[in-house]
Records
---
Amino acid sequence: MEEKLLRDTFGDYLVKVGKNNADLVVLDADLSTSTRTNKFANEFPHRFFNMGIAEQNMVGVALGFAISGKVPVVSGFSIFTTGRAWEFIRLASHDNLNIKFITTHAGIVGEDGSTHHALEDLSLMSVLPNLNVLVPSDNIELNEILDYALKSHGPFYIRLPRGSFPKIHNQDYNFTLGKPDILKEGNDICLIAAGYGNFLALESISKIEKELNISAKVINLPSIKPIDKEALIKEVNDMKAIIVIEEHNVYCGFGSIITRIITEVYPIKIKCIGVENSFGSSGNREDLLNFFNLNTEKIIEEIKLMLKINV
């Protein structure tokens, strides 16, 4: 059975929390049917605000709500919210305001068109002081992340896809801000990912280990920012090489952050697999993932080069 869309989980979560928190308000940019904030709007119409296609104004209003003691959740498509309203999100981060930016349609969205792919948002958000940047890998992790963000003071950016991700966690999973989540132990190569990249890594493991005769470790790092540097380095310091998988542009993205943290401490070969200095294209999501080399074949190719394996 196909997993529930993460944006549906998000919408249902807002309704659940809204019943117990009268200070929760939700703002959207005329996309509530797509982002699923319409579920909150139907239950709490007086606490939902459709700001129209005016992302800067939407975040500006959220600033006022936060200053007044409300807990605003700002939603919309990832590229439009982070791109059009970046300076206003910067103001929220500057004053460490209690605003939760939870956007959908991040990464490669498929048929929505090249303008709608969000392949730059992690760069835009991670550069802002005080802003926590989180990327869930399945619905279980998303619920944990939403719990943490709504119970914590301060600004958060949570990146959701258009579709669903296969389940990779058990129900007893606990999210810890900044900490690496070890999905599989291994000795030779380490695959580090967030979001869809974790499913791709786990899906590829069997073929990698069988074809290359190596042992591979998989680390889920849902906290793009902050990252527990000591904990991460402890998990990779005996690896021969590292591959970072990101559904994002590799320039100034997740992989760039990981590479800086690790190589400041010790030298190791690191390869980032993601979109290479390109905007998105329109088409089927699976076709586009292969077009941008986010697939098992690319991972194996890079491991062979890094470890100088001839098979």
---
Amino acid sequence: MTDRSQPETPDQSVVEAYLSSQKDSAAANPAQDLGRGLIPAAPEGFRSGFVGIIGRPNVGKSTLMNQLIGQKIAIVSPVPQTTRNRLQGILTTDTAQMIFVDTPGIHKPHHKLGEVLVKNAQSAIGAVDVVLFVVDGMEIAGGGDRFIAELLINVKTPIILGINKIDARTDLRQSHLDAIDRSYQELAQERGWQVINFSAVTETGLPELQTSLTEKLEIGPYYYPPELVTDQPERFIMGELIREQIILLTREELPHSVAVTIDRVQEDAKITRVLATIYIERDSQKGILIGKGGQMLKQIGSNAREQMQKLIAGKVYLELFVKVQPKWRQSGLRLAELGYRVD
């Protein structure tokens, strides 16, 4: 039996420093054992690098990364601004290894948490090898898209403008479709960006997107073992699966006031026991989260447990606790304690 009772903080090291250390290490020793599996020497012509996925909130960035790597590691919700930490997903093919950095949606922040999220997203832009700027193909390019485009104006790395949600455009009038496409074509042509249309839901256009991303990477080594799909610890993903269910089940009532920590993971041969704490800001939110007779919390736990069982391919016992932490989103200290990287 393994008892991992000490909470782990997600590894949120600066991408720039990480890139430098990984490249130096790979150059010195092309076959390493990092405790996560053997990293082989890359074949001739192999390409590798970091791809920053950026865009406004709720344009489908997390769905896209999950589809590209073939496994769910980022939470998906119709509620904007649900990605909070820079999450790295890894796609390895016969010819390339792409490390996707799924950043929080860039938006006008309204509290300390929002400031931290936007700053983390912006810092990732200049640290990657390719930028994938994802936009909503159901909407004409707006002020938020142009704001991000301005942030990219001095970026020297290759940029692809990805127009997502093309599967949902069947009911739009042709004149509206033309206006949407024209707005993004103008945005891209002014800056010399490549444009690719795709659907993260149906996977239409994703092979072409993957090919274009690969072509823009430089010749390089494996940064991670080929079988790895994320650099995030298992506890972090468990916490995100709980938070996803809170967002989906409570919608606009709670999402941005909630944080989750995994306090204990205890494993034996037959079952994994997980103890987690859900933090909210006000006593009045307890009733929403717990629900009548505890039914809401029970449903959150049941749904999250099912997702965790898929993650670890085994049985899970999940116990949830609720704790009030007033104004945690406004406090840099509280944010750091809850696992957010605060510069």
---
Amino acid sequence: MKEAEVIALNSRKLWIVLLVLVVLIGFMLVKYVITSRKGEEEFKTISMEEATKIFEKSGDYVILDVRRADEYKEGHIPGAVNVSNENIRGVQPEELPDPQQEIYVYCRTGRRSKASCSKLVAMGYTHVTNIGGIVDWKGEIEKEDAKEESFYISPITDEIFARIEGKSYKEDCTLEREELRYLHVLHRDQKNKEHEGEMIVNRHIAKDVLEIMKRLYEEEYPIEKIRLVDEYDADDEASMEDNNSSSFNFRFISHTNKVSKHGLGLAVDINTLYNPYVKTVDGKRVVEPVTGEAYTNRNGEYPYKIEKGDLCYQLFTEKGFLWGGEFESCKDYQHFEVSDEQMNQWYPDN
């Protein structure tokens, strides 16, 4: 073959390779554009006027307000549930358990609702409709009762996480942040003075614990303090000595790689100073907190004492919690926890 023919042949091969590369690159670009726009294309958009007509009829649908909790409380479409746009991030919200249910999404102006719709579709929700902003809503506005709105559950936002990181949420914490929930409550002390309270618990028990705390408040059951244990640098002894009630504080069970129930947020301690932990170890009596020794005599009369059959005991045990005052190996009068069977069902690898 002559040299000129070889050069021409090689040139044709080069052009063929270049053409194939161009086709492949074009295909990849088209695929990328389709994928990146997939969420946007797979949700519907209707006007608030059209949505109003739908809401006038009963149906199996969810109205989702994706504004912040404070905006929601100031006024929302009646019956709407609240999951902020910030908290829609890959984990299926508890408020939206059915990915095939009709979901109508709104915010204030429509910007956040559009973003939320895209994220919901990407998470597998199949019937999502953006209805824009509440500024266009002409119907009735529902507001939260002043007391009712003080009892709420929130995911662990970046702001909350900044308060617990390196303290109760330690560097070796094996529990995903998404498994926890923040509770805001009201409670009354022995003098019936009202206080705000904060607690972090596991998502599996968040609703039950919130209901218990609300009932205790309504019935004026005295709880002196409900603060994040992080205010005590996650020092359990300091928290208990201050009679603080709390739940989540990550730690392993001594000499094991198993996470404790408090480490999973599956146990709650109430009025800790007056309801101490008591156990005999190698013939030595252990009391925690050490300042709770005077309250180990359960026949005595003193404030904040939890007793079998009292309202606190009833509410927790009705929800399936076990009371430490009935343990055989020790007495933990402040302590309510889920059963081992329930824990193992939720966290079989622990």
---
Amino acid sequence: MKLLSPKLDIVFKSLFTSADSADILSDFLAAVLDVDVSEINNIEIQNTELLPEFDEQKYSSMDIVLKLKGKLVNIEMQVKKLSDFTERSLFYWARLYARDLEEGNTYRSLNQTISINICDFKMFDCEECHSVFHIAEDTRHEILTEKCRFDFLELPKANTDSRQIRRLKRWLDFFNLKSEEEAEDMVKTNDTPITKAVFILKKMSADDRMREAARIREKALHDEASYLADARDEGMAQGMAQGMAQGMAQGMAQGIEQGMAQGMAQGIEQGMAQGIEQGMAQGIEQGMAQGIEQGMAQGIDKMLEELRALGVDEAKLQAARQNASAGL
């Protein structure tokens, strides 16, 4: 018989919230919070739905929500690494913390709210598999309030040889179970809470309805991952196509603009050169014509002056000027 994965959300929820699971849930919480298991009592499983207060708000559902004495705890099993997982964890914590404030009560009546995140991936660049966060002052590291706490358990680091995880390692190994042989080895340790957890997991794995529910859930997760991958690929293809089209359009526009600018510059330069050349030719031609005309006129005047000096009649001189001018 193939064991169901404790990491699958519906298996995880059923495993820790069934009627006969209170003692294994208490042991797990005691290991995470590093307290004696006797301090974990009167566990009250609560509604996991976070209903929107306004139409535009997002509907959310958490895995496990429970209430202890003076504490609210949200336990999340996260298999896939998401880019916004930290923000989502913060959102769940905030909604759960605010949900605890009943009408007419003061803010001081709010319970400590703890977010426990079990991650099937490496979350932080460190060797420790258990990271605990509070709100603290940057330089003095003074804790602002004990009412805010985040725990992250990184399953890939379960084999880390650290004293920190001795109590937790049993549970991390349980969540990492992949075969019935591994389950039998865990039973041989005579660890009562772990042995019971293995027994419940086997019982669930043998239940046809539970196996079918797990199959449907796994298929839904695979389909979702496939849809996301297809959407990502399609988005990348569309982005590349749009980028190429925009690049070509911009390239053509820039080419035309540069071509026009260069053409205008070349046209102006060529026009100026041609204008100067034509102007010089026309100037020379006009200057030569004017010079010849003026020279001839001056020559006629000089000739008439010499004739006048010889006593030629003035009327004849004027007639000669008119004839000479008409010849010009």
